[in-house]
């Protein structure tokens, strides 16, 4: 079984992530208060705890998951290209997986080698479009269909 274990958003561009235990996610704003939550293919980003741990092991360090700057961290699920177009349901929330969250130069600035470590096997997570408005909570079950 997969579970939502963390929620974060960026209220201001280039500023630290804000962590919460619950959040409203809407079709108009993504994770409410997130700077990047406007409608589109990249409204919400989701990352796998297991894939993040692989990245950290490769770098021989334990970085906080927020270094990646994803909105949601799930446990018990790893993302692949085959998941594009699938529905990720978190509690009552439905997200359409639209693609890979490509690592950028900001990752290299955050930690040497991080950008390259995120590139293989979709380790950086996925981008999603919000399909319905819902409140999510850490501990919510996560289903992929």
Describe it.
With 145 residues, the chain is α+β, with helices and mostly antiparallel strands. The chain has one domain: M1 Pyruvate Kinase, Domain 3. Helix content is 15%, strand content 36%. The protein is built from three helices and eleven strands, in the order βββββαβββααβββ. A seven-stranded mixed beta barrel has the order 1-6-5-9-8-7-11. β1 (2-9) and β2 (18-20) form a beta hairpin. It is globular, with a radius of gyration of 14 Å. The two termini are 13 Å apart. The model has no long low-confidence stretch (mean pLDDT 93). Pfam families: MOSC. Residues 18-145 form the MOSC domain. This is MOSC domain-containing protein.
Give the CATH class.
Answer: Mainly Beta
CATH level-two architecture: Beta Barrel
Count, helices: 3
Percentage of helical residues? 10-25%
Q: What percentage of amino acids are in beta strands?
A: 35-45%
CATH superfamily placement:
PK beta-barrel domain-like
**SS class:** alpha+beta
Mean pLDDT over all positions: 93
**Widest beta sheet: strand line-up:** 1-6-5-9-8-7-11
Series of secondary-structure elements, N-terminal to C-terminal: EEEEEHEEEHHEEE
CATH T-level fold name: M1 Pyruvate Kinase, Domain 3
The number of E-state strands comes to 11
Radius of gyration from CA coordinates: 14 Å
Span of the ends, CA to CA: 13 Å
Unreliable runs = none
Largest sheet: 7 strands, mixed, barrel
Can you tell me the number of structural domains?
Answer: 1
**Outline, from the CA principal axes?**
globular
């Amino acid at each position: 079984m997969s579970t939502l274990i963390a929620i974060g958003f960026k209220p201001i561009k280039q500023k630290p992530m804000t962590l919460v235990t619950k959040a409203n996610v809407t079709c108009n704003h993504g994770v409410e208060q997130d700077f990047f939550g406007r409608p589109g293919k990249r409204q919400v980003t989701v990352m796998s705890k297991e894939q993040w741990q692989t990245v950290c092991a490769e770098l021989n360090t334990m970085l906080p998951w927020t270094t990646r700057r994803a909105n949601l961290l799930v446990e018990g699920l790893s993302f692949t290209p085959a998941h594009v177009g699938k529905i990720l349901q978190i509690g009552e929330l439905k997200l359409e997986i639209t693609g890979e969250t490509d690592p950028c130069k900001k990752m290299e600035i955050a930690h040497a080698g991080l950008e390259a470590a995120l590139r293989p096997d979709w380790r950086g997570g996925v981008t999603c479009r919000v399909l319905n408005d819902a409140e999510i909570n850490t501990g919510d079950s996560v289903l992929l269909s």
